[in-house]
Amino acid sequence: AGSRNETYETQGITHLLRIAAGLTTSRASTFGITRNIQQMGGSLVATSDRESIAYTLQATRDKLDKALSFLEDVATRQVFKPWEISDSTPRLRYELSTIPENVRIIDLLHKAAYREGLGYSLYSPKRQLDKISSETLQHFVNTWHTGARCAVVASGIPLNEISAMAGSLNLGSGNGNTTPAKFGGGEVRKERNSELASVAVAVESSGLDKEKDALAFAVLQQAAGTGPHVKWGNTTAPLHRAVGSAAGNDPFAITAFNASYTDSGLFGFLLQAPASVAGA
Fold first, then answer.
1. Domains identified in the chain and CATH numbers
2. DSSP E strands, the chain
3. In whole numbers, what is the pLDDT of the chain averaged over residues?
4. How distant is the alpha carbon of residue 181 from its chain centre?
């Protein structure tokens, strides 16, 4: 489950879930999880997008059995103590203040395209800070973090060991009811105190339910160009050449953009340049 599964009242809950990874569970404290993972020389991180949240563990092979128990705790045995959730607000504020400009513009692009569902941001709206309760978090997890919606992937570990771990996960039943994506199109503007203008334009592409079309858009992205692969380098990609001829000696950055989701997708480009160049 990701931000797509939020409602207007619960916007930002996925962002809070991502931050809450590693807080007290039904079997371990925050200190215990952090201390043990560090002593084992491992790492445990949570990442999320619009349709999923992933808990990723890296550990040495001889410590893996013990480390897996902490991965299970963090992913499936959360308790969301109110005081710990409240203590996460400063980190939420910090992350909201440091969102990269390219991530912010892609967020706005989704908002213009879908309004809700896939249009909801990967980050919590400021109005939602301190508004999401422990009960709301637990209800969201119980509804969307179910066995039918879970996948366990591993490398460097025997299949029988990871299968045993997957079979012991404390996950509920049910498949949830995801609202189909509805592309609406439109325009969103955000005033920023910056010398650079950021512009993103996209059309609806194919979702992963149409594999061949989704693959074609992925190839088209690479053919159009995703920018130089060497810092301060150049590229002969058609998209970059076209903008370069209009920009002249002015600085700019442009990349093709492609995002494929379960039943919809976006394809377009992201441009960052001085306002005079972007307008041209």
1. 3-168 (3.30.830.10), 196-274 (3.30.830.10)
2. 43-48, 53-58, 196-205, 253-260, 265-274
3. 91
4. 17
pLDDT mean over 191-209: 90
Neighbouring CB atoms inside 10 A of 8's CB total 8
User: Cβ neighbours of residue 77 under 8 Å, at least 6 residues apart?
Assistant: 25, 26, 27, 170
Amino acid at 228: P
pLDDT digits (tens, 9 = 90+) for 37-86: 999 999 999 999 999 999 999 999 999 989 999 999 999 999 999 999 99
Could you tell me the two tokens for 126? 């400021």
Classify residue 102 by its DSSP letter: H
> How many CB atoms are located within 10 Å of the residue 149 CB?
18
* 12, 32, 41, 77, 256 from 67: Cα distances, Å: 29, 12, 10, 15, 39
Cβ–Cβ < 8 Å for 185, 113: yes
Between the CA of residue 120 and those of 124, 216, 221, what are the distances in Å?
9, 26, 24
Token pair 């076209």: residue: 242
Q: In terms of C-beta density within 10 A (0-12 exposed, 13-18 middle, 19 or more buried), how is residue 124 classed?
A: buried
Against a cut of 0.85, is the pTM above it?
A: yes
Distances (CA, A) of 243 to 155, 194, 231: 42, 21, 18
